[in-house]
Amino acid sequence: TEDERQQAIVRSVVDVAAAFRQRVIAEGIETFEQAEAASKLGVNYGQGFLFARPMPMDHLARWLCEIRSEAHAARPT
Hints:
The protein is mainly alpha-helical. The chain is built from three helices and two strands.
């Protein structure tokens, strides 16, 4: 199936990257299911609408601060 073919491609890219001690970023992650599947295939990082919509550069610093604050507040004490 197409899904199996896509998984084989991702697995191959991850294997090549690992051979060169590189990390892999999956682009276009839009759902939790896609993020989970990429993680299970060995992808190190994800980029896509699931994490954030495209934004102007001047909004990036503010957004990163907000994300860090939320992550810090969510940590168990």
